[in-house]
Amino acid sequence: MLSYSSTENATYIAPMDMAKEIIRLPLHWAAAAAIATVLWYAFLLLLRRRSSSPRLPPGPTGLPVVGSLPFLDPELHTFFARLAGTHGPTYSLRLGSKLGVVVSSPAAAREVLRDNDAVFANRDVLAVAHVIAYGASDIVWTPSGPTWRMLRRVCVREMLSSSSLDAVYHLRRREVRSTVNHLFSSAGKPVDIGAQVFLSVLNVITSMLWGGTVESGAERSTVGGEFRELVGEITELLGVPNVSDFFPALQRFDLQGVVKKMKVLLERFDRIFASIIDQRRSAGDGGGKDFLDHMLRLEREEADTATPFTMTHVKALLMDMVVGGTDTTSNTIEFAMAEMMNKPETIKRVQEELDQVVGRDNIVEESHIPKLHYLSLVIKEVLRLHPALPLLVPHCPSSTSTIGGYTIPQGSRVFVNVWAIHRDPSIWQNPLEFKPERFSSTESKWDYNGGGDFTYFPFGSGRRICAGISMAERMTAYSLASLLHSFDWKLQEGAVLDLEEKFGIVLKKAKPLVAIPTPRLANLDLYS
């Protein structure tokens, strides 16, 4: 007779007893029994492996071959947030031949961005990103490693450190005052706030990069609008779901034409960069006057090092600064103005604070900013509701890892939905309400460095945290303080204020904020 052994999970035939019984059977029955035995133990082995290895995160089933691609909503941040309500805070969805994983809880975000930071430090480079970043040669898309560390060191140390930013305060002051002067000349007329702030930020950045500005004076609005549209097209293409990214075998066909469009945009910027670089080289050694001088010197001196700094890196970093530093900051300022105009008592509180700290017979300086505590709360609240990159830049694990008890395979595209975490009602009371005061009781807890309990990290966290936090923080606070100190603001008659968002890789207002400035300072010389 066959003997049985019992375990907690199943009753199985002991191997030795099975072997003895097979020997006594006719040949064809013995063969069948042997096959059955092998299958049985293979099945048990499979069960054991499945029980010892975490499974993939749950998620929508999708369709054969294409997975969930046909169901993607262009507003990915809200679409992913809705799926989290069904499938949980860590879920997966098949996107063609790629596995997408979406993380929507502080605990899972901490595992990705801190606990397993080294594993998740790489990017799944988009086809359009490969184009606009000169072959993924910039800070954002370059794989984690010696080249990326070299690029970040060059960028942060020479341009974005506190001391470097202090040294070019006069550039920020000049451009902010120029914006105030332009708005004064437009008093009583509707102006596109986002476009004006965009040009101000762009001129600050180009002044820091190569000592020049894009435009000012009578053509300011036109040129600012054109550049903003150009940068907006780039960030929008970076957020478009592209078949080439989900089926790499089809990449050469560019079925949606998005790579072709991005190449056109790259050519426009590349002509600008090439012209500026040629002029600077013709002029000889600039003596380190600006960031471009420094990069060109590095390009000469480090050409033969183990990690060379090349002309491709020069252009890629210029692109990072011009595209990454402009749209994000101007969009944040535009959202801030819209949220405050939608809740006028917040503007009143900011202006009362400005009158107390700066006074009506003075102009705002950056030295006033640390004393503007309520303005700081406003900015934090705006970045909670409208983080500049709502899904951050997607991460890509360099090896298979475990997040939240689930297996995240190597090469997956991992989205951290900071937008959803910032609006989670289990974390934030009345999360959809614009309420700067929510940060006041524990203001020191809410910084921009991506640490803490991962309930608030608008600039990301870990080694791939945004390199331009200090620049964004200074420019946002200084610009907002100047706009609200110098002017009262109202909508055009009959206009309706909306706060609808539009998703790209960068979050922006769906409709531009157009408002009318009215000077509030008695001394008109302060607008010069």
From TrEMBL:
CDD domains: CYP76-like. The chain crosses the membrane at residues 27-47. Keywords: Heme, Iron, Membrane, Metal-binding, Monooxygenase, Oxidoreductase, Transmembrane, Transmembrane helix. InterPro entries: Cyt_P450, Cyt_P450_CS, Cyt_P450_E_grp-I, Cyt_P450_sf. GO terms for molecular function: heme binding; iron ion binding; monooxygenase activity; oxidoreductase activity, acting on paired donors, with incorporation or reduction of molecular oxygen. Its cofactor is heme. Heme binds at residue 466. Belongs to the cytochrome P450 family. This is Geraniol 8-hydroxylase-like. It comes from Iris pallida.
